[in-house]
Amino acid sequence: MATLLSLELTPPVYPVSGVGLGGRNLHSARGTYTISAALALNDTIQLFDIPVRSRILGGFVKSDDLDTGGTGLRIDVGDVDDIDRYFVGGAGTPGPVAGVSNDVAVTGIDYLTTKKTRVYATVSTAPTTGATAGTFTVVLFYSNEEPA
């Protein structure tokens, strides 16, 4: 059975940099989930929120080996409208093996949010043997666009 896993989300205050000044400062959002039980198919981790009119410029996923019995685990990172908008998990990428990937999905690079957007990590393929300890971190870099 899938479980919704959650961090203690405290609504952050985001500066809207450059509004009225024409500038586009770089911001980042970061979420780390500490594994306390093996992940299962369709588990969803709430990571962080990105403000409205944010343009995604890049990011990375960093993970411990969360599939100790193989490389079957797939963890996608996206939002409610597209579960793998930012990162598409798979064999050899963080989650099933320890490491870091900055391979943002084509759908995520240069994406402009139209509303406050919650970013999730979703287990789309169960691990062969799920680890019961470790961490999974996602960071997205973005700039804020002026209102149209």
Features:
about 150 residues, Jelly Rolls, five-stranded mixed beta sheet, four-stranded antiparallel beta sheet, 9 strands
Structure description:
The chain is mostly beta strands. The protein has one domain (28-144): Jelly Rolls (Sandwich), CATH 2.60.120. It is 0% helix and 43% strand. It has no helices and nine strands. A five-stranded mixed sheet has the order 1-3-8-5-6, with no helix packed on it. It is elongated. The chain starts with a strand and ends with a strand.
Topology:
Elements (H helix, E strand, L loop, with lengths): L3 E3 L20 E9 L8 E7 L3 E10 L10 E6 L2 E6 L11 E3 L15 E9 L8 E11 L4
Parallel strand pairs: 1-3
Antiparallel strand pairs: 2-9, 3-8, 4-7, 4-9, 5-6, 5-8
How would you describe the shape?
A: elongated
Terminal CA distance:
43 Å
The CATH class turns out to be Mainly Beta
**Annotated CATH topology:** Jelly Rolls
SSE topology string: EEEEEEEEE
Please tally the helical runs, counting DSSP H or I stretches of 4 or more residues: 0
Beta-strand proportion: 35-45%
- The parts where pLDDT drops under 50 for at least 5 residues are none
The helicity comes to under 10%
Q: Assign the structural class, choosing from mainly alpha, mainly beta, alpha/beta, alpha+beta, or little secondary structure.
A: mainly beta
Which quaternary structure do these chains form? single chain
**Main beta-sheet annotation:** 5 strands, mixed
Rg, please? 16 Å
Number of domains: 1
Q: Please provide the count of β strands.
A: 9
Order of strands side by side in the largest beta sheet? 1-3-8-5-6
Mean pLDDT: 86
CATH architecture: Sandwich
